Every structure is written in C-alpha cells, then in structure tokens.
Amino acid sequence: MIFEQVPTGGCQSYLIGCSDTCAAALIDPEISQIDHYVALAARDGLRVRYVIDTHTHADHFSATREIARQLNVPVIMHRSSPAPFVDMRLGDGELIVLGKMRLQAIHTPGHTRDSMCLMVEDRVFTGDTLLIGATGRTDLPSGDPEALYDSLFERLLKLDPALKVYPAHDYKGRSHSTIGDEIATNPRLQKRERGAFVEMMRNLNLTMPTHVTEALRTNMSGGKTVSQLLAQAAATVPFMSMAELKARVEAQEGDLIVLDVRERDAYEAAHIPGARLLPRGQLELRVNQDLPDPTRRILACCELGYISTLAASTLREMGFQHAVALDGGMKAWRESGYPTKAGREP
Ligand SMILES: [Fe+2]
Predict the structure, then answer these.
(1) How far is the C-alpha of 303 from the C-alpha of 203, rounded, in Å?
(2) What is the pLDDT of residue 209?
(3) Whole-model pTM?
(4) Ligand 1 ion local residues (Cβ < 5 A)
(5) What residues in the chain have per-residue pLDDT under 50?
(6) How far apart are CA 263 and CA 37, in angstroms?
(7) Ligand 1 centroid – CA 235 distance (Å)
(8) Which of 29, 107, 265, 291 lies at a C-alpha separation of 20 to 30 Å from 155?
(9) Residue 169, Ramachandran bin (φ over 0: left; ψ between -120 and 50: alpha; else beta)
C-alpha cells in the first residue's frame, strides 16, 4: 500500500494506492491542494482512478468534482449524497476495487445522512463519523445524533480494535489512532447509553463552521466557490503592478486605456488620472461603443482588484487580447498616495 496523508488546516485528506498496480484513490480532497495531490501521485508513481468524499462537507471546499474533471475519473460518494455530479454511488458493504486492494464502504449516517467510512486492509477512513478523541457534530444539515449512536456503537466500534482510524479532521496535528484507543479514551464514546449520548450531542452548542453556506452550496451542486472563480479568471489574464501603472500615468503614455470598472459614484470620488469609466455591470453591453478597437492595450481597475480581474478576463474572452488587470485596486492605490482625480474626465 502506498499512503499519503495531506492535512489542510484541520482537514485531512488521503491518497491511497496499490503498490502492485499503481491504481490510487483520493479521499476527501480539498480544493486548495489539487496540485499537491497530483504531484504526490506522480512522485509516488500512482494513477488516481477515483476521487471519493466520505460525506457532504459543510466546512471545507471539496475538490472531488474539479479533480474528476481534470483527470477524467469518477466521483464516488454514498448513495444518499445529494450532489448531482456523483458518478458512482456506493451502498453499505459495497467495494471499490483499487488494483489488488478493496475499499469497503460502511454507511455510517449521523454526522450527515450520506456519511460513510471506508475500510481497507489495516485501516478505516472514518470521515467525520469518528474523530480522534471526538465525533463529528450532528447539528448541521441532515445530522442526526440517534443515527450517529447506531453508526458508532452498532457498526464502527464493533470493528477490529487494532484497525487504524484515519479521520477527515484533526485539529491537533495527530495523524491517526485505532478503534481500540478510541473506545478506551475518546470522551464522547464514554457515553455508551443511547439517551446519554444523544443528550450530549444535542447540547454541544458548537459555533457554525466558517463558509458553511458556500461550502454546502458548492459541495452539493458542484458549483464554483468565489475564490475558484477569481483564480480561474486570474489564470487567464496578465497583471500590471501599481508602481508600473503609476509610472505610465505620470509619463502620460497614450497607448494604454485605463478602464475603471467601479460604479460612477466611486469613480467620481477618486480615479486614476485619465481613467475611463465603464462599470463592470455594463461591460458587455457597452463594449462595442466604448472600446471599438480590440487591439488596444486596456488595463482594468476596480476597488479591491477582484472585479477588475473578472472584467479583464471577460474582455480577453471577447477578443481584447491586450487586456490586463491592475495588481491591486483603488483602495491600495489611494493608500499608497498615488495620484487621483475627482469628477469626470473630459
Ligand atoms: Fe464534515
């Protein structure tokens, strides 16, 4: 078995491969680590054949769909996953064949309805059903403390105590434990009576994870996060530094069109001298009148440097091959004491 554990903040993801056949699976990949997983698989001589989420994550952005698209491999989740992009849905007890290895799904609802654990050889990937010294919470959408009790006490904890436990989270830098260790020391598992366990789970009063709305939206639909959208746009445009632009503005270079894509009130309060106003919301509608020459060099700027990246990317898509974005925004420009002008341009 070839095995890599990739922590991202408190999230844990795993690359597991068969050393005989080089077939591998990614478990609970996180969106910021895509290049890392692909590089690890290449370094280890593995080919990723499957990407698997142990459940619908509410606290981080799953990379399964994006990796599946890049590598042309199937996304695997439990049968009750709401995500429409899942290619292979597993039922309890079903296996994924990974070269000479077998990954067996154990349906363990509770943290979410679609939670499953994956058992392979000497270890079990427990998702958020069982964590080291804790359990997954049951107060997020489709969570159910009664179901978690059954999943833990009737299923998971009845497995071989020597099985290594690899969870989807650890906030203290630990890599794994064992079923036996968890039975002995996990404080939440000391409530062995159903009523007491459920009562404890109902009264944890945990704070909501950050980005829960965006995580559920994107993980359940396969849609993009805001930062993914921005990163994709940024990958298609060159940028110009603020110092470079300042030098060009001061030299009054005529060949560069500075396009301020904010709204009129922001533009009139303070803009880069010589900048033209074309709000992002009107860009496509006014582009033919305002920018008739697609060979011109155009620099898009906005308040923070995000919307201008989208605007420059849109311009490039429409054939403005010399559109660039300002590396920074008007806020940083003003704070640097660079020249601005108020009101309208002649
Ligand atoms: Fe989770």
Answers:
(1) 44
(2) 86
(3) 0.85
(4) 57, 128
(5) none
(6) 41
(7) 30
(8) 29
(9) beta
